[in-house]
Design goal:
Elements lengths: L6 H9 L5 E5 L5 H14 L14 E5 L2 H23 L4 H18 L3 H13 L5 E4 H11 L1 H4 L6 E2 L4 H17 L7 H8 L4 H12 L19 H16 L7 H19 L24 H22 L3 H24 L2 E2 L1 H13 L4 H10 L2 E4 L7 H10 L20 E5 L13 H12 L5 E3 L1 E6 H11 L18 E4 L7 E9 L7 H19 L4 E3 L7 E3 L5 E5 L6 H9 L4 E4 L8 H14 L4 H9 L7 H9 L30 H5 L6 H21 L4 H10 L3 H6 L4 H21 L4 H14 L16 E5 H4 L4 E6 L15 E5 L4 E6 L6 E2 L1 H26 L2 E10 L7 H13 L28 E8 L2 E10 L18 H18 L5 E2 L1 H12 L1 H6 L2 E2 L29 E2 L16 H13 L10 H16 L48 H16 L2 H8 L1 E13 L2 E13 L2 E8 L8 H6 L2 H15 L5 E6 L4 E4 L1
Parallel strand pairs: 1-7, 1-8, 2-3, 2-6, 4-5, 6-7, 9-10, 11-21, 11-23, 14-16, 14-17, 15-16, 17-21, 24-28, 29-30
Antiparallel strand pairs: 12-13, 18-19, 19-20, 22-23, 25-26, 27-28, 28-29, 30-31
Helix pairs in contact: 1-2, 2-3, 3-4, 3-5, 6-15, 10-14, 11-12, 11-13, 12-13, 15-17, 20-21, 22-23, 22-30, 27-29, 37-38, 37-39, 38-39
Length: 1266
């Protein structure tokens, strides 16, 4: 076998002892083999470990993923076992010959003996389970557990892999901010200033970002408005303006004048500083001039883009306010510091926290002894995928690799111990910036490690044949990838170890268009792509042969698992999945956002929801429609008709006799006759429902007494759910996903006890937010299915056939705004952007970091394309519509081909530039809208296929002509009845209150009075109502008459015994307001001040010093009790307000008399036995708003107070009626309907069987049970 071209580099990499090594290993060059060989050399012969009892315990090997760590361990164990077998003479002859050569090399190179090699190999195998071979995060957790006190963590901490951080942050923030925003807070004036410009949610978002351990808090201090920070960005724009202006033929062109004006502004900033921007009168929202005359097409477009860029830059400069940001961050920093400590003290650490705390442990001077010991303990450090690690990980590695004689708290100044550090990576494959991988920091650290030496390079590719490798090199070398320090590394070509030998080994470019050859929209192009890909797979799998050195003749038939479809993201995966389904192609989607949206997970969560809450009808219907029960929509409707959507009860045999008259669950448009004709539930559906309900009852009974994980396991092991799931389409994957849900429950239980409600709540949040989570890996990886992956997910993998889809999709975004706060390692500064739109505030550092991240993002996309193309072993297929832009992968490829060949894909039949070889379209064929050809690219060929999509998705069944023989008379009659039913239904208001219903029932008895009393209530009149609370007025006419503001009120004679009859509503409302915030266990002497505060508040509202958010400014208003609903339709639960008055007269002409009356009423109440009961009670809530489904309408109201006495739950409602002891019971009886509503609400929400209901008459201090 021919030695690799980089064999010398490989030899140095595995055996070098006197210097630190950086290896740049190109795609497919065998870096895992290199790492294993390096570890073998270190373990078996390295002088550094020759005196160690167990050398493997002195090695640290860090990998990017746990899978990579597991693979390394398995391969290392295999090699060590073979070496021991060879030394003992137990190996096969072939293995003996192969390993003896290796052992001789180790013995001679390191001057050791076979006996010593055997000892070290055996000891390494013995201690392999203790070896520190794993991810950087697992290594960091190991160090923190070794030194918990020094690190400031709980010794038995748990790595937070769920939502503990989010939940704890929300809880602590709510508690903290409530104290900060009180009127007597020492910082209330500071908050007032900040909240004039930023809303509270923005401050919360900033606090969360700062709390997350990724931002060093000492980096928040920065020079105020130092323009030198952004001067390079300004100079760059000014230089481009000068250059573009010079290219225009006429200097008086309006677009030129606009550019010159912008250039003058930049000059002013250079001279006077960034505050100069705030003096401008220039309109930054003005569109670029459209004066196209005297410009070239390309120059005009570039000039307009430059105007927009300049406007964007100036808008950002206007948003810079260093003093304001300092004030804002100073406000929340105390919370951030306290929260970090609280989170750690509760025994949790996030993934970011693992790295940050480990770095801090190694960096702190007071912990120098820890670092010195660890440096001595770990004699060799190896790091894989170094290009994808972030700067904090770099610092950890550098601190531990420091020479024993030196110590520095700055990782950049660390003096490394020679021969200790070995790192492998490929900057061309650095694609994890979203995980804070930093290509600029990578380049810095590589120079620091290598010193004057160059990194070693591995260029021999063992994966792909020469046809693929040549195309990759031609596209990327100096074309797609151009070296830019800090952004893009120098492209290092890779070389194929094997040549192309079969016709199926090719690179194909598939360009989709419509039937006329015109460009498709992005969505249409994806549909066309999906159709072509599905057809290709159906036509080639099990028919085409491919090279396989493990096969008998070196070739075998292509199967489904050989094919992988790679996409940049899964947001547009549906067209491809649907096409695969149409063609019957088995597939698996392995990606970030798919797990929580799979149907089996949604169905199972519905099942858990209904087990936990039998009242959750939406979840129950979802489960009944799922494969778990398999009922049709018609059968579920019939269950509803039979009042049988409650699994705690049985399924009724027949429809109730009063169905259609009192059944509120049926559709309002149905007539009584139609309802009576509804058929009974079928025997089959009844049997299924009864069986499933029995299962639910059994599981529901156990749900509250066993852990969630055990509950899920019992569900999967019973009722044939596992069998049903496994028999579905892609059943193996679906069942694996359900067991993954079980593992998630186990993980949550390990970190903290969780209830079923908490678990379901977390999963529902993930579903709602589209949380990224990969599907469960199947236990059988040999399933013959096509894999659909994101490009990031495919990194480290390889497939015989790679299809890259959606290459026309835009991936460039030059205008991404910094999200909250971001730390930049190279400058040790933090950029902050807070707020939205015109209220946005930022610092200068944010502009520099934002520009850097946007530039990096585009350069990283080029590396993403490189990673995708280098996954292919035998065949690479690139699909998409034709693009010549600089925003898509197809645009990159098109421009690169043009630079290399002088032609564009899609024009293969046109002659190229005369200086280059002509590229005629070859092998033309006109089959099914397809034309084919090829063109040379370097020493390789690219095959081009033009797929003109006709919009037909195959395979398509023949359309059968349908004949309808229907009698439309019955249909027309039914439709008329529905229209009549709809008209009748519209007469009923959607929202009602208890008093509305009670008054309507009273009016039915006293029709003539009700008719005479019909009026529009816009304010309260003396003597019109016996009850001052506004919710006692109907909200809408009971018979549908009048407009939405018209109500029916019962005429009540004024209470002549009341001293202030005109102020009854105000007095009652003030009493309620005082009691809403009253401390029943506090000092009753505070009554005077509480009433005064309530009256002052009410007066301020009327004078518009305090404005209700629901009412316009400047209107005279009456006080309305909080949570009530006025006749004008204001919602309950809003800030208390007043009713609009038509006369404009004030109701507070004598506030002192009103205050005295309120004090009199409440003093009597405070002296009563009822009050003493409330003092001894447990208060569960006050002014509790309710929304309840009620007889086809929405019932809403507010419970004044809910409390508990022993085991009794009591609902109470305050009344300020003038009553006597003789008519007490009769007056209380008037509120029976209110009792029914409130009791039903409490039963439903608190699951309380028999709550009590009382009316508390405040004037006499008596409580009457109803």
């Amino acid at each position: 076998m021919i030695k690799p071209i980089d064999n010398e580099s490989r030899e140095i990499a595995v055996s070098e002892r006197e210097r630190n090594i950086v290896v740049i290993a190109g795609a497919g060059t065998g870096k895992t083999t290199l790492l294993v060989n390096r570890v073998l050399h270190v373990l078996l012969g390295h002088k550094r470990l020759q005196k160690e009892e167990s050398p493997i315990l002195r090695i640290v090997a860090m990998t990017f993923t746990e899978k990579a760590a597991s693979d390394m361990k398995v391969r290392l164990m295999g090699e060590l076992e073979k070496i021991v077998a060879v030394i003992k003479g137990n190996a096969s002859p072939e293995e003996q010959i192969k390993r003896e050569k290796f052992l001789a090399h180790i013995r001679d190179t390191y001057h050791t003996t076979l006996a010593e090699i055997e000892r070290r190999a055996k000891k390494s195998l013995e201690d392999m389970d203790k070896a520190l071979i794993g991810t950087i995060h697992s290594f960091a957790a190991h160090l923190l557990r070794l030194y918990p006190l020094e690190s400031g963590v709980v010794p038995g901490f748990i790595v937070d892999e769920s939502d503990v951080f989010e939940e704890m942050f929300d809880k602590e923030w709510s508690r903290w901010i409530a104290g900060e925003l009180t009127l007597d807070s020492s910082r209330a004036h500071l908050w007032k200033d900040v909240l004039r410009r930023l809303d509270l949610e923005c401050m919360k978002d900033l606090a969360k970002r700062l709390s997350a351990f990724t931002i060093p808090l000492d980096s928040l201090t920065s020079p105020a408005n130092d323009a030198s920070i952004v001067q390079p960005l300004i100079d760059f724009l000014a230089h481009r303006i000068t250059k573009i202006v010079a290219s225009c033929g006429k200097q008086k062109n309006n677009l030129v004048l606009q550019l010159n004006e912008l250039s003058n502004i930049f000059d002013g900033i250079r001279k006077h500083g960034i505050d100069y921007v705030n003096t401008l009168t220039y309109d930054l929202d003005k569109d670029p001039s459209k004066a196209k005359k005297d410009w070239t097409e390309e120059g005009f477009a570039a000039a307009q883009r430059l105007v927009k860029e300049s406007h964007g830059m100036l808008k950002k400069l206007r948003a810079v306010d260093h003093a304001f940001l300092t004030a804002a961050t100073d406000l929340i920093l105390p919370f951030v510091k306290t929260f970090r400590q609280t989170y750690l003290s509760q025994g949790y650490i996030s993934f970011d926290g693992l790295l940050t705390l480990t770095r801090d442990l190694l960096q702190k001077k007071e912990c120098r002894h820890v670092r010195e010991k660890l440096k001595d303990d770990f004699r060799v450090i190896l790091v894989d995928e170094f290009q994808d690690t972030d700067p904090v990980q770099y610092e950890i590695v550098l601190f531990l690799s420091e020479s024993l004689e030196y110590y520095s708290t700055d990782a950049r100044k660390v003096i490394l111990e020679e021969g200790k550090l070995f790192i492998v990576g490929d900057p061309k494959q650095s694609i994890y910036a979203f995980r804070r991988a930093d290509i600029e920091a990578y380049e810095y650290v590589v120079k620091q490690v290598c010193g004057q030496d160059e990194p070693l390079k591995l260029q021999e590719n063992f994966r792909s044949h020469s046809g693929i490798i040549e195309v990759v090199n031609q596209l990327f070398d100096g074309r797609i990838m151009v070296e830019q320090p800090g952004l893009q590394p120098r492209y290092i070509s890779i070389h194929a170890q094997r040549q192309k030998r079969h016709s199926s080994q090719k690179v194909e470019l598939v360009l989709v268009s419509d039937i006329e050859g015109n460009e498709l929209s992005a969505n249409e192009a994806r549909e066309a792509e999906a159709e072509w890909i599905a057809r290709w797979i159906a036509n080639h799998v099990n028919r085409e042969t491919m090279e396989d050195p493990l096969a008998a003749n070196g070739v075998r038939t292509l199967v489904f698992r050989d094919v992988a479809l790679l996409l940049r993201a899964f947001t547009q995966v549906r067209p491809y999945v649907e096409a695969f389904k149409r063609y019957g192609i088995p597939y698996i989607v392995e990606g970030e956002k798919y797990f929580y949206t799979t149907q089996e997970i949604l169905d199972f969560i519905n099942l858990l929801r209904v087990i936990g809450n039998p009242h959750d009808l939406v979840a129950l219907v979802g489960v009944l429609r799922s494969p778990l029960a398999g009922l049709t929509d018609r059968e579920i409707y019939e269950l509803r008709v039979h009042h049988s959507l409650d699994y705690r009860k049985g399924v009724l045999e027949k429809i109730p006799e009063d169905y259609g008259i009192k059944d509120t669950d049926c559709h309002p448009l149905q007539t009584h006759k139609q309802e009576k004709e509804k058929p009974n539930l079928s025997a089959e559906a009844k049997e299924i429902a009864e069986s499933f309900y029995a299962f639910l009852r059994e599981i529901h009974a156990r749900a509250g007494i066993i852990p969630v994980s055990q509950l899920i396991a019992e569900i999967l092991d019973s009722a044939h759910i596992a069998e049903i799931t496994a028999s579905a389409w892609h059943g193996e994957q679906k069942l694996a996903n359900l067991w993954k849900l079980h593992r998630m429950a186990c993980d949550m239980e390990e970190s903290a006890g969780i209830s079923l409600q908490t678990f379901v709540g977390r999963i529902k949040t993930h579903i709602r937010e589209g949380r990224e989570e990969g599907e469960s890996p199947l236990s059988d990886e040999t399933l013959d299915v096509v894999k659909i992956l994101t490009i990031h997910k495919s990194k480290g993998l390889e497939f015989p056939v790679i299809i890259l889809g959606n290459l026309h999709g835009e991936v460039r975004n030059d205008h991404e705004v910094l999200d909250g706060a971001v730390f930049d390692w190279s400058t040790s500064t933090t950029g902050i952007v807070v707020g939205r739109g015109n209220q946005q505030v930022r610092n200068l550092q944010s502009m520099v970091i934002e520009k850097k991240l946007n530039d990096r993002s585009w350069e990283e996309e080029k590396r993403v394309l490189y990673v995708a193309m280098t996954r292919a072993r035998e065949r690479l297929i690139l699909t998409g519509s034709e693009k010549g832009d600089d925003k898509s992968y197809m645009g990159m490829i098109t421009q690169s081909v043009k630079d290399a060949t002088g032609m564009e894909p899609g024009n293969e039949d046109k002659t190229a530039d005369k200086e280059k070889s002509p590229l005629p379209l070859q092998e033309k064929a006109g089959v099914m809208g397809v034309s084919q050809g090829k063109f040379p690219l370097g020493n390789a060929e690219v095959f081009v296929e033009h797929f003109r999509f006709d919009g037909i998705r195959h395979p398509q069944k023949a359309v059968k002509e349908k004949f309808l023989n229907a009698d439309w008379t019955a249909f027309v009659e039914t439709w008329k009845k529905r229209e009549a039913g709809m008209a009748e239904a519209l007469k009923r208001p959607l929202f009602v209150s208890p008093t509305t219903i009670a008054d309507e029932e009273a009016m039915e008895k006293d029709g003539p009075i009700a008719q005479r009393s019909t009026r529009k209530i816009s304010h309260l009149q003396p003597g019109t109502s016996e009850q001052p609370r506004p919710e006692n007025y109907p909200l809408s006419p009971p018979n549908g008459g009048g407009d939405s503001g018209t109500v029916m009120a019962k005429k009540i004679q004024p209470d002549t015994g009341q001293p202030y009859p005109g102020q009854s509503a105000v007095i009652g409302s003030l009493c309620h307001r005082v009691l809403e915030g009253w401390d029943f266990r506090g000092d009753s002497q505070k009554l005077q001040s509480s009433v005064e505060s309530a009256v002052a508040w009410a007066i301020a509202v009327q004078k518009n010093e305090l404005r209700s958010p629901d009412q316009p400014f400047g209107q005279d208003l009456h006080y309305q009790k909080e949570g009530a609903m006025s006749s004008e339709g204001e919602e309950r639960g809003k800030i208390p307000g007043f009713h609009k008055t038509s006369s404009g007269a004030t109701v507070f002409q004598d506030a002192e008399l009103i205050k005295a009356e309120v004090i009199k009423i409440l003093s009597a109440f405070l002296a009563s036995e009822t009050y003493r009961e409330l003092q001894a009670a447990q208060i569960l809530g006050r002014e509790i708003p309710i929304l309840l489904h009620w007889d086809g309408q929405v019932m809403r109201g507010a419970i004044d107070i809910l409390y508990k006495m022993g085991d009794r739950v009591i609902i109470a409602d305050y009344k300020t009626d003038h009553v006597t002891m003789t008519d007490l019971t009769a007056r209380a009886e008037k509120y029976r309907y209110q009792k029914e509503v409130y009791v039903e609400a409490v039963k439903h929400c608190l699951k309380v069987d028999n709550p009590e209901f009382k009316i508390i008459f405040l004037r006499i201090g008596m409580a009457v049970s109803i």
